[in-house]
Protein backbone atom coordinates (compact mmCIF):
# COMPACT_ATOMS: atom_id res chain seq x y z
CA UNK A 1 0.00 0.00 0.00
CA UNK A 2 1.32 3.47 -0.95
CA UNK A 3 1.59 5.33 2.36
CA UNK A 4 1.66 8.64 0.49
CA UNK A 5 -1.81 8.27 -1.04
CA UNK A 6 -3.78 5.93 1.21
CA UNK A 7 -4.83 5.90 4.86
CA UNK A 8 -6.40 3.08 6.84
CA UNK A 9 -8.58 3.86 9.86
CA UNK A 10 -10.34 1.67 12.40
CA UNK A 11 -9.89 -2.03 13.01
CA UNK A 12 -8.24 -4.34 10.53
CA UNK A 13 -10.61 -6.23 8.26
CA UNK A 14 -10.55 -10.03 8.12
CA UNK A 15 -7.86 -11.51 5.87
CA UNK A 16 -9.08 -11.79 2.29
CA UNK A 17 -11.66 -9.01 2.62
CA UNK A 18 -12.45 -6.95 -0.45
CA UNK A 19 -10.75 -3.56 -0.51
CA UNK A 20 -12.83 -0.37 -0.71
CA UNK A 21 -10.97 2.79 -1.70
CA UNK A 22 -12.72 6.07 -0.78
CA UNK A 23 -12.20 9.42 -2.55
CA UNK A 24 -13.04 12.60 -0.56
CA UNK A 25 -14.98 15.71 -1.63
CA UNK A 26 -13.49 19.06 -2.73
CA UNK A 27 -11.40 20.48 0.09
CA UNK A 28 -11.76 17.19 1.94
CA UNK A 29 -9.17 14.82 3.33
CA UNK A 30 -8.88 11.12 4.07
CA UNK A 31 -10.19 11.67 7.60
CA UNK A 32 -13.65 12.40 6.15
CA UNK A 33 -14.03 8.62 5.91
CA UNK A 34 -13.17 7.71 9.49
CA UNK A 35 -16.85 6.98 10.38
CA UNK A 36 -17.44 4.91 7.24
CA UNK A 37 -14.17 3.02 7.76
CA UNK A 38 -15.26 2.09 11.28
CA UNK A 39 -18.72 1.07 10.09
CA UNK A 40 -17.28 -1.27 7.46
CA UNK A 41 -14.05 -2.36 9.09
CA UNK A 42 -15.33 -5.81 10.07
CA UNK A 43 -16.38 -6.55 6.48
CA UNK A 44 -14.09 -4.62 4.10
CA UNK A 45 -10.52 -3.38 3.97
CA UNK A 46 -11.26 0.36 3.74
CA UNK A 47 -8.63 2.77 2.45
CA UNK A 48 -9.16 6.53 2.22
CA UNK A 49 -7.32 8.60 -0.37
CA UNK A 50 -5.24 11.48 0.93
CA UNK A 51 -5.00 14.14 -1.78
CA UNK A 52 -1.94 16.42 -1.90
CA UNK A 53 -2.30 19.80 -0.22
CA UNK A 54 -4.13 18.81 2.96
CA UNK A 55 -3.47 17.45 6.45
CA UNK A 56 -0.16 15.54 6.48
CA UNK A 57 0.33 16.34 2.76
CA UNK A 58 -0.40 20.05 3.15
CA UNK A 59 3.10 21.08 2.06
CA UNK A 60 2.53 19.46 -1.34
CA UNK A 61 0.91 21.34 -4.19
CA UNK A 62 -2.71 20.29 -4.79
CA UNK A 63 -3.76 19.36 -8.29
CA UNK A 64 -5.54 22.03 -10.32
CA UNK A 65 -6.68 19.65 -13.07
CA UNK A 66 -9.01 16.66 -12.79
CA UNK A 67 -7.10 15.02 -15.65
CA UNK A 68 -3.72 15.30 -13.95
CA UNK A 69 -5.16 14.25 -10.59
CA UNK A 70 -6.82 11.16 -12.05
CA UNK A 71 -3.60 10.25 -13.88
CA UNK A 72 -1.71 10.30 -10.57
CA UNK A 73 -4.45 8.41 -8.74
CA UNK A 74 -4.52 5.68 -11.37
CA UNK A 75 -0.77 5.27 -11.05
CA UNK A 76 -1.03 5.04 -7.26
CA UNK A 77 -3.97 2.62 -7.36
CA UNK A 78 -2.63 0.33 -10.09
CA UNK A 79 -0.61 -1.94 -7.74
CA UNK A 80 -3.79 -2.61 -5.72
CA UNK A 81 -5.85 -3.80 -8.68
CA UNK A 82 -4.47 -7.34 -8.63
CA UNK A 83 -7.06 -8.23 -5.97
CA UNK A 84 -10.81 -7.52 -5.98
CA UNK A 85 -11.59 -3.93 -5.07
CA UNK A 86 -14.33 -1.31 -5.16
CA UNK A 87 -14.28 2.49 -5.23
CA UNK A 88 -16.44 5.01 -3.36
CA UNK A 89 -16.27 8.69 -4.26
CA UNK A 90 -18.24 11.57 -2.77
CA UNK A 91 -18.83 14.82 -4.73
CA UNK A 92 -15.49 15.69 -6.37
CA UNK A 93 -14.39 12.25 -5.24
CA UNK A 94 -17.05 10.70 -7.48
CA UNK A 95 -15.54 12.45 -10.51
CA UNK A 96 -12.04 11.30 -9.55
CA UNK A 97 -13.15 7.71 -8.88
CA UNK A 98 -14.86 7.61 -12.28
CA UNK A 99 -11.93 9.15 -14.18
CA UNK A 100 -9.43 6.94 -12.33
CA UNK A 101 -11.44 3.86 -13.33
CA UNK A 102 -11.42 4.99 -16.97
CA UNK A 103 -7.65 5.24 -16.90
CA UNK A 104 -7.10 1.89 -15.20
CA UNK A 105 -9.32 -0.01 -17.59
CA UNK A 106 -7.87 1.81 -20.63
CA UNK A 107 -4.46 0.55 -19.48
CA UNK A 108 -5.76 -3.01 -19.32
CA UNK A 109 -6.05 -3.22 -15.54
CA UNK A 110 -9.09 -4.82 -13.85
CA UNK A 111 -11.87 -2.38 -13.08
CA UNK A 112 -13.56 -2.20 -9.68
CA UNK A 113 -16.09 -4.84 -8.72
CA UNK A 114 -18.41 -1.92 -8.14
CA UNK A 115 -18.17 1.85 -8.34
CA UNK A 116 -20.10 3.86 -5.72
CA UNK A 117 -20.68 7.47 -6.79
CA UNK A 118 -22.13 9.82 -4.20
CA UNK A 119 -23.40 13.39 -4.22
CA UNK A 120 -22.54 14.13 -7.83
CA UNK A 121 -24.46 14.37 -11.08
CA UNK A 122 -23.32 12.51 -14.16
CA UNK A 123 -20.52 14.14 -16.17
CA UNK A 124 -21.42 16.17 -19.23
CA UNK A 125 -19.55 17.94 -22.04
CA UNK A 126 -19.87 21.21 -20.10
CA UNK A 127 -18.53 22.08 -16.62
CA UNK A 128 -21.17 22.21 -13.89
CA UNK A 129 -22.46 25.70 -13.11
CA UNK A 130 -22.04 24.91 -9.40
CA UNK A 131 -18.30 24.43 -9.88
CA UNK A 132 -17.55 27.67 -11.72
CA UNK A 133 -16.74 29.89 -8.75
CA UNK A 134 -14.74 33.12 -8.77
CA UNK A 135 -12.61 34.09 -5.79
CA UNK A 136 -12.25 32.91 -2.22
CA UNK A 137 -15.42 34.58 -0.92
CA UNK A 138 -17.56 32.82 -3.51
CA UNK A 139 -15.91 29.47 -2.81
CA UNK A 140 -16.38 29.80 0.95
CA UNK A 141 -20.01 30.89 0.54
CA UNK A 142 -20.71 27.94 -1.77
CA UNK A 143 -19.13 25.41 0.58
CA UNK A 144 -20.95 26.87 3.57
CA UNK A 145 -24.20 26.49 1.65
CA UNK A 146 -23.58 22.77 1.27
CA UNK A 147 -23.63 22.26 5.04
CA UNK A 148 -21.56 19.52 6.57
CA UNK A 149 -19.85 19.10 9.91
CA UNK A 150 -16.63 20.80 8.78
CA UNK A 151 -18.10 24.28 8.33
CA UNK A 152 -16.72 25.49 11.67
CA UNK A 153 -13.31 25.78 10.00
CA UNK A 154 -14.51 28.86 8.12
CA UNK A 155 -14.98 30.74 11.41
CA UNK A 156 -11.32 30.36 12.38
CA UNK A 157 -9.01 32.61 10.28
CA UNK A 158 -5.96 30.39 10.84
CA UNK A 159 -7.76 27.20 9.88
CA UNK A 160 -9.37 28.92 6.91
CA UNK A 161 -5.96 29.98 5.63
CA UNK A 162 -4.84 26.35 5.83
CA UNK A 163 -7.77 24.89 3.87
CA UNK A 164 -8.20 27.59 1.23
CA UNK A 165 -5.34 26.48 -1.06
CA UNK A 166 -6.87 23.02 -1.42
CA UNK A 167 -10.35 24.46 -1.97
CA UNK A 168 -9.08 26.88 -4.61
CA UNK A 169 -7.29 24.07 -6.44
CA UNK A 170 -10.19 21.63 -6.21
CA UNK A 171 -12.81 24.09 -7.42
CA UNK A 172 -10.47 25.30 -10.13
CA UNK A 173 -10.10 21.72 -11.31
CA UNK A 174 -13.84 21.06 -11.19
CA UNK A 175 -14.63 24.36 -12.88
CA UNK A 176 -12.70 23.30 -15.96
CA UNK A 177 -13.73 19.62 -15.94
CA UNK A 178 -15.96 18.25 -18.66
CA UNK A 179 -16.64 14.80 -20.01
CA UNK A 180 -14.71 14.21 -23.21
CA UNK A 181 -16.72 11.26 -24.48
CA UNK A 182 -15.66 7.66 -24.64
CA UNK A 183 -17.14 4.24 -24.02
CA UNK A 184 -19.14 3.57 -20.85
CA UNK A 185 -17.57 1.57 -18.04
CA UNK A 186 -18.19 -2.15 -17.67
CA UNK A 187 -18.12 -2.06 -13.87
CA UNK A 188 -21.48 -2.00 -12.04
CA UNK A 189 -22.37 1.39 -10.57
CA UNK A 190 -24.36 2.45 -7.52
CA UNK A 191 -25.20 6.15 -7.22
CA UNK A 192 -26.22 7.65 -3.87
CA UNK A 193 -27.73 11.11 -3.45
CA UNK A 194 -29.44 13.11 -0.71
CA UNK A 195 -33.07 13.99 -1.40
CA UNK A 196 -32.44 17.62 -0.41
CA UNK A 197 -29.04 18.10 -2.05
CA UNK A 198 -28.91 21.77 -3.16
CA UNK A 199 -26.52 21.14 -6.07
CA UNK A 200 -27.41 17.65 -7.33
CA UNK A 201 -30.90 16.63 -8.41
CA UNK A 202 -32.05 13.03 -8.44
CA UNK A 203 -32.40 13.30 -12.21
CA UNK A 204 -28.79 14.46 -12.58
CA UNK A 205 -27.61 11.61 -10.35
CA UNK A 206 -29.63 9.11 -12.39
CA UNK A 207 -27.72 10.25 -15.47
CA UNK A 208 -24.79 8.06 -14.41
CA UNK A 209 -26.81 5.16 -15.81
CA UNK A 210 -25.53 6.11 -19.27
CA UNK A 211 -21.92 5.70 -18.15
CA UNK A 212 -21.95 1.96 -17.49
CA UNK A 213 -22.98 -1.16 -19.35
CA UNK A 214 -23.09 -3.02 -16.04
CA UNK A 215 -25.69 -3.19 -13.34
CA UNK A 216 -26.94 0.20 -12.14
CA UNK A 217 -28.62 1.19 -8.88
CA UNK A 218 -29.80 4.58 -7.62
CA UNK A 219 -30.17 5.09 -3.88
CA UNK A 220 -31.87 8.21 -2.46
CA UNK A 221 -31.29 8.98 1.21
CA UNK A 222 -32.72 11.74 3.42
CA UNK A 223 -30.41 14.72 3.66
CA UNK A 224 -28.46 17.33 1.77
CA UNK A 225 -25.11 17.28 0.03
CA UNK A 226 -23.37 15.85 3.09
CA UNK A 227 -26.09 13.33 3.91
CA UNK A 228 -23.23 10.91 4.60
CA UNK A 229 -22.48 12.64 7.91
CA UNK A 230 -25.84 11.51 9.31
CA UNK A 231 -26.42 8.35 7.25
CA UNK A 232 -23.16 6.47 7.61
CA UNK A 233 -24.89 3.25 8.68
CA UNK A 234 -27.25 3.43 5.69
CA UNK A 235 -24.35 4.01 3.30
CA UNK A 236 -22.42 1.10 4.81
CA UNK A 237 -25.45 -1.10 4.15
CA UNK A 238 -25.74 0.12 0.55
CA UNK A 239 -22.06 -0.65 -0.04
CA UNK A 240 -22.31 -4.11 1.49
CA UNK A 241 -25.44 -4.95 -0.51
CA UNK A 242 -23.94 -3.58 -3.72
CA UNK A 243 -20.80 -5.66 -3.38
CA UNK A 244 -22.80 -8.80 -2.75
CA UNK A 245 -24.64 -8.12 -6.02
CA UNK A 246 -21.51 -7.19 -8.00
CA UNK A 247 -20.12 -9.60 -10.53
CA UNK A 248 -16.46 -10.13 -11.38
CA UNK A 249 -14.31 -7.07 -12.01
CA UNK A 250 -14.33 -5.78 -15.57
From TrEMBL:
It comes from the Bacteria. InterPro entries: AB_hydrolase_fold (IPR029058), TEII (IPR012223), TesA-like (IPR020802), Thioesterase (IPR001031). Residues 21-243 form the Thioesterase TesA-like domain. GO terms for molecular function: hydrolase activity. The keyword Cell membrane does not apply. Keywords: Hydrolase. Belongs to the thioesterase family. This is Alpha/beta fold hydrolase. It comes from Streptomyces gulbargensis.
Amino acid sequence: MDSTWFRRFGTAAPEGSMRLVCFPHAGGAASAFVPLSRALGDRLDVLAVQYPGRQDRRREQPFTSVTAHADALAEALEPLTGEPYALFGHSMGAVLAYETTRRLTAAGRPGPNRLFLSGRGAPSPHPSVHDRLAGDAEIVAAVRGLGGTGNAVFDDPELLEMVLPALRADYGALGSYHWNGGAPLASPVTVVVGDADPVVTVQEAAGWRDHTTGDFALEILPGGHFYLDERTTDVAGIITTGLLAAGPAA
